[in-house]
Amino acid sequence: MNPAVQRLGNPLMERLRRPEFQTSLIQMVKIIFATTLAWWISVNFLETSLPFLAPWTALLTIQATAYRTLSRGVQSTIASVLGIVVTFMVGNFLGVTVWSYAVAIFVGLVIARIRWIREEGITVATTAIFLLSDGFTEESRNFGERMVEIIVGVLIGILVNLLIMPPLRDRQAAGYLDSITRRMGDVLGDMGQEISSSWDTECAEEWIKEIESLESELESAWSTVRFARESRRANPRRHIHLRRQPTAPDPVDGPNWEQVLEQAKDGLSHLHTITHILRDATYDNSPWDERFREKWSAIACDAGQAISDPDVDTDSERLRMRIDDLSREMSEDEDLPSKLWPVYGSLITGLRHIVSLVDEVRAARREEILQ
């Protein structure tokens, strides 16, 4: 195979394997199936004269999580009923004119501000638009038929999203956390390797850029974790899991992602501080103590490997003991230049905080496997 084609194919396959891509693809297929099924039922069983209401409400109902689908389904039903009521009131008493059309939309938009249907509130106005644009004919005036169409569409949307692979966002949240912690570990490990010999301003600037990129990814991870937590609510896959594995922990809470993210945020902050210290040190010609540089870099390499690859059997308590031993050894050295102590102390403190992330990452990975 042509190497250029192979390089092109690998990112494509990687993207296809991503959980978020697969989830989005499944959701698209379900939306297409639900709306088409709702239209087919409207035409062949309900024999409605307006076969667009059922597929339209089915389309509105299917959401990214099972809980949101139920919630939005109820809101869609209420909003559609209110839209029909507005249409019938305006159509029967004012007729269909330019002014009555505008009045119906105005009333629909005002009702859309009601808090408990706000997410689907615009449906009130759009329902009025659909029915009044049809000229409010005898077929449009059949209130019972319009209600049946809406209920059928909502039920189909809910059932399809709940029964056909209801979306769980756990893999997306776990993927973000894996990416963040692995990249943090890689930066720390790279620092350890560079510092063991020498480093320059360019190296430090690259670390800073990578950390800033990680901070942006961390913001995205927060929203994904909240989404994953919501995806577990009202999800039948959770109950199926419990029936198949009655002794397994209830996955309603899942791994403590929020705590890991807080630790990662704190770790990034300390990593940022360490990087700035190392960058500033490149402008100072003062010689570094070789023992400190050798031992600190060795601990940084081991901690980075433990964070980037939680499957590696690394004793975090042993890492902390090595940090304490280094601190004690440096503090007892009377020949150590006093001007370097703030630098060494900051590097030791920052590394101690980052090491605490090792246990959190390992615990979250363990809980993820149990799910």
In short:
With 371 residues, this protein is mainly alpha-helical.
CATH C-level of the largest domain: Mainly Alpha
- Categorize the overall geometry: elongated
* CATH fold label of the largest domain: Four Helix Bundle (Hemerythrin (Met), subunit A)
Class computed from helices, strands and strand pairing: mainly alpha
What is the number of independent domains?
2
Give start-end ranges of low-pLDDT stretches. Answer: 1-9, 246-253
* Rounded average pLDDT: 76
Question: Radius of gyration from the CA trace?
Answer: 30 Å
Head-to-tail CA distance between termini: 40 Å
* DSSP E strands, number: 0
Elements, N to C (H/E): HHHHHHHHHHHHHH
| Level-2 CATH architecture of the largest domain | Up-down Bundle
Largest sheet: none
Number of helices: 14
Keywords:
Four Helix Bundle (Hemerythrin (Met), subunit A); mainly alpha
